[in-house]
Design goal:
The complex is a heterodimer of chains A (112) and B (161).
Chain A lengths: L5 E6 L10 E9 L21 E8 L2 E8 L8 E7 L4 E9 L4 E8 L3
Chain B lengths: L1 H18 L7 H11 L7 H9 L4 E2 L3 E3 L4 E2 L5 E7 L9 E8 L6 E7 L6 E7 L5 E9 L4 E10 L7
């Protein structure tokens, strides 16, 4: 399985927002999200678990959301959520998988 | 897909072996009784929820999971979760979990939130091994629990892909 892995993407508001606005953040990352319960058809052995188990969101340097995932989250996970715009600052997401690999991406939230 | 069916069939024979005549009724009907026989979750769901968010009464309100009752693709089931609750400094939702009763590992995801989220509106996609109850439980900072249970039918197994 030479699946592509990584390439994290975040999309926040393109234009400046007002202080207090609730803004939606959408994210996407390439990851096989192998649950460890699936068998390889040819070798008849279990494909080892390999999934993102933690997602951390920081806004302006402060952690605002943490997700704990299992192998039941779909392959190439999409994740969207909201944050309340307080001040101009980076929104950083970090994905970590069960093999210790880590990926991160940033989007700028501009408060006019 | 063949592979998924293979596992199901194996599980079926194991289940049938254990339950004997109760399951081995007849031909095609036997297959549908597989679904029923294996509807018992792998773990105690109430205990799992209590372990994650604490025991206590769950008010079946405020939480929404706006998806159709039938999932087209079991490997990619949209899970848009909203909780109609303030996200203020002293009154907010601090934790949300999503549980799929009939998955081998029923706890699918947990989210820890802060008032900075502004509102609880999360979306991700999940795999469903088979038709199942899907539960969302939200816990406020004061420990109040809100929940929702939805029966979702899937067309085929979601383990592949």
């Amino acid at each position: 399985m030479a699946d592509e892995i990584g390439n994290p993407k975040i999309r926040g508001p393109k234009d400046p927002v007002k202080k207090g606005d609730l803004v939606e953040i959408k994210s996407l990352i390439k990851h096989p999200m192998e649950s460890g319960l699936r068998k390889d058809k040819e070798t008849d052995t279990l494909i080892p678990a390999h999934f993102i188990d933690q997602v951390v969101v920081e806004y302006g340097g402060k952690q605002v959301l943490k997700a704990t995932w299992t192998g039941a989250v779909s392959k190439d996970p999409f994740f969207s959520f909201f944050v309340k715009a307080e001040a101009t600052g980076p929104l950083k997401m970090t994905w970590k998988d069960n093999k210790g690999q880590s990926f991160s991406a940033e989007a700028m939230i501009t408060v006019a | 897909m063949d592979h998924t069916n293979g596992v199901t069939r194996r599980t079926f024979f194991r289940t049938a072996g254990l339950l004997g005549a109760a399951v081995a009724t007849s031909g095609l009907a036997g297959f549908s009784s597989v679904a029923r026989a294996s509807d018992a979750p792998a773990v105690n769901i109430d205990e799992l929820i209590a372990k994650q968010v604490g025991a206590g009464p769950i008010a079946m309100e405020k939480v929404a999971l706006d998806i159709p009752a039938t999932a087209e693709n079991a490997a990619l089931v949209r899970m848009p979760i909203t909780v109609d609750h303030p996200m203020e400094a002293n009154n907010f939702i601090q934790s949300v979990i999503l549980v799929i009763d009939n998955n081998p590992n029923p706890l699918v995801a947990q989210f820890e939130l802060l008032p900075e989220s502004g509102k609880v509106s999360l979306e991700f996609r999940a795999r469903m091994a088979k038709s199942s109850k899907v539960r969302v439980i939200a816990k406020s900072n004061s420990g109040k629990l809100y929940g929702l249970v939805k029966d979702i039918q899937v067309a085929a197994g979601g383990c592949a892909g």
